[in-house]
Every structure is written in structure tokens, then in C-alpha cells.
Amino acid sequence: MRFENTRFDPDGTPFHDLAKQMAAQFGYRAELALDPRLAELLRLRVAQLNPCSYCLILHTRVAAELEIPPEVIAHLASWRESAMFSDAERAALDYCEGLTLYDVARFGDLHERLRAHFEEQQVAEIAAVIINMTVWTRLKLAQGATPSADPPFAAPDTSE
């Protein structure tokens, strides 16, 4: 699998370096106090909400490496219809959607629900993980990070 930037090279401005610094602090390789499973579910949910091919592929792979069950990964988009997520994860996913989709009307309530499950430092990390992913999904969309098979897919031979 490889990705091609079809719109512009993100290294053309210092912004890409800033995004990399954020990723070092809150991306999938960062050392956080937050539970790694939850952090990765949040990253993947942001990638679903801001449909970013690069991020969906990367964070599905990372979730699998963290041994998050494939069934959980497969139906993260329908987490409200699942008993596979804890109450704390559900509060964090709801908060994730509110922050990513900028739901100002519900955000205060979402924050209070999150605080029922997490300490202030964890809430701050949850917000930072979501904001970092929002930046990356928007950057990858803007630069046109398009996945392609390496080597490119070939049509099956049907001559037999």
C-alpha cells in the first residue's frame, strides 16, 4: 500500500512540521496516560467522521496491532448500537463526535458526561487526541493523500 499526494506536497509549508510535532505528542506513537485502546478508538472514529482514507487505513492497522478485536473495529461507526464498548468508552466516543462535528449545543453536556468517567488530565488528553486527528484528517484531505495498491491491482485472468 502506498499513498500519493494528488493535490500538493505538504512539506511546502512549515505547517506540516507543526502537525508532526502534534503527532509526536498525541498521535498513535505517543506515550499517553490515556488507555491505548481508547486513544486508538478515538483516532479511528475521527477518521471515520472526516472520511480520510490514509487515516482509516493507518488507524485500522494500528487498532489491530493493539489487539482491538476486529469486530470492535468493524462496527465502531455504530458504537451506539453495541454492547462491546464500556460506559467510559461510550462517553468518550460521544464527546469525540461532538468535538469533531462541532456540536456546540450539546458540548457542555458531553463534557460533563466525560468527566463522570475521567480525571481532568485524561479529559485533556482525550481532547488533544481528537484535535490532533482532526488536523491530520483535514491535512490529508487537502493534500489529496490517495491510497493505491503497490503494485497496482491487476484484473483477474479470465482466459481459461
UniProtKB/TrEMBL annotation:
Q: Do you know which InterPro entries this protein is assigned to?
A: AhpD-like (IPR029032), AhpD_core (IPR004675), CMD-like (IPR003779)
Q: Which Pfam families does the entry link to?
A: CMD (PF02627)
Q: SUPFAM superfamilies annotated for this entry?
A: AhpD-like
Which residues does the UniProt record annotate as the domain Carboxymuconolactone decarboxylase-like?
27-95
State the source organism's domain of life: Bacteria
Q: Which PANTHER family match?
A: 4-CARBOXYMUCONOLACTONE DECARBOXYLASE FAMILY PROTEIN (AFU_ORTHOLOGUE AFUA_6G11590) (PTHR34846), CYTOPLASMIC PROTEIN (PTHR34846:SF10)
Q: Which NCBIfam families match?
A: ahpD_dom
Name of protein: AhpD family alkylhydroperoxidase
